[in-house]
Automatic annotation (TrEMBL):
Domain 3-hydroxyacyl-CoA dehydrogenase C-terminal residues, every copy: 185-281
Site location (Important for catalytic activity): H139
Occurrences of domain 3-hydroxyacyl-CoA dehydrogenase NAD binding (ranges): 3-182
Lineage: Bacteria, Pseudomonadati, Balneolota, Balneolia, Balneolales
Record-level Gene Ontology MF annotations: 3-hydroxybutyryl-CoA dehydrogenase activity; NAD+ binding
One Pfam family linked to the record: 3HCDH
Species of the source: Halalkalibaculum roseum
EC top class, as a word: oxidoreductase
Descriptive protein name: 3-hydroxybutyryl-CoA dehydrogenase
GO BP annotations, alphabetical order: fatty acid metabolic process
PANTHER family referenced in this protein's UniProt entry, alphabetically: 3-HYDROXYACYL-COA DEHYDROGENASE FAMILY PROTEIN (PTHR48075), 3-HYDROXYBUTYRYL-COA DEHYDROGENASE (PTHR48075:SF5)
Length: 282
């Protein structure tokens, strides 16, 4: 893996860029404008500073990491000489399809295409490209520089060679790869999201206040964040999208999104990113 391109510099994209660059793999980072690319770079710099302060890396490593990131506003230019493309644009199938059709046209034949989707079928996105055997899900977790897991999702046609290369790449990033098949929510969100949804039902039905629901799970189950704090951190819109994927994918009423979750998304209270969700943020 000599060079990669990361498409999208949002929360997940800048974290993915951070870990590749910090592990010595040059990254071409694509954003829609120079301003957004600058914003992604400044988030990466802030997170690297945090690591320097904690003595996880030194100042030289910080500079080397930043120097190995090149920003682009054109997908075609960014992917023309890379071995791997990791897409981290918003969770919208049509948007991902559009991005991958440009990537597929411009990237060399050898290039592996990966998506960081947390909910859309890998097989369905892969089918929109001319190389489904070289297509795979590489699902990272927020905050990417901290969380050790990469869920590796095999599509219907993903080859063993592609899987092995991506597994090896995840280890190179000091992550632990876990193989999963392409089912709604994979493993992570099939287990996590119903727990979050159930925590929201506890508030909806007046079982307990949000702080108390979270305290139960933090103090009783040693979760680092309560499920409602975590829902705000992930984004309530993302949580609702994933619940809908489970609900529609399994056709099982146990995955019905809690009406309070739907209402909060309708009201624009999406969590950290809008300053308010189950809790308030500055
Ligand atoms: N970059 C680099 N380092 C970071 C960081 C970042 N963005 N965010 C936190 N850190 C580091 C801190 O510097 C700190 O380092 P030390 O251990 O050396 O002190 C460490 O991580 C812990 O951070 P804090 O002390 O600031 O705060 P904390 O102890 O409360 O931990 C947390 C914060 C790591 C986010 C922790 O609360 C946690 O693990 N929460 C659960 C996160 C989680 O479940 N993520 C998955 C979400 S689901 C998802 O992403 C996928 C999906 O499909 C929806």
């Amino acid at each position: 893996m000599k060079k990669v391109a990361v498409i999208g510099g949002g929360t997940m994209g800048n974290g993915i860029t951070h870990v590749f660059a910090m592990n010595g793999i040059p990254v071409n980072l694509v954003e829609m404008s120079e301003e957004l690319a600058e914003k992604a770079l400044s988030t990466i710099e802030k997170n690297l500073d945090r690591m320097v302060k904690k003595e996880k890396i030194d100042a030289t490593e910080k500079v080397e990491t930043l120097e190995s990131i090149t920003t682009f506003t054109s997908v075609e230019d960014a992917v023309k000489d890379v071995d791997l493309v990791v897409e981290a644009v918003p969770e919208n199938f049509e948007l991902k399809k559009k991005v991958f059709s440009k990537v597929d046209e411009a990237a060399p034949e050898r290039t592996i295409l990966a998506t960081n989707t947390s909910s859309i079928s890998i097989t369905k996105i892969a089918a929109a490209t001319s190389r489904p055997e070289q297509f795979i899900g590489m699902h990272f977790f927020n905050p990417v520089p901290v969380m050790k897991l990469v869920e590796i999702v095999k599509g219907f046609e993903t080859s063993e060679e592609t899987y092995e290369t991506i597994e090896e790449t995840a280890r190179l990033l000091d992550k632990t790869p876990i193989p999963v098949e392409d089912y709604p929510g994979f493993v992570s969100n099939r287990v996590l999201m119903p727990m979050i949804n159930e925590a929201i039902y506890c508030v909806h039905e007046g079982v307990a206040e949000p702080e108390d629901v979270d305290s139960v799970m933090k103090l009783g189950m040693a979760h680092p964040m309560g499920p409602l704090r975590l829902a705000d951190f992930i984004g309530l819109d993302v949580c609702l999208d994933i619940m809908n994927v489970l609900y529609e994918g399994f056709k099982d009423p146990k995955y019905r999104p809690c009406p309070l979750l739907v209402k909060m998304v309708d009201a624009g209270k999406l969590g950290d990113k809008t300053g308010e969700g189950f809790f308030e943020y500055d």
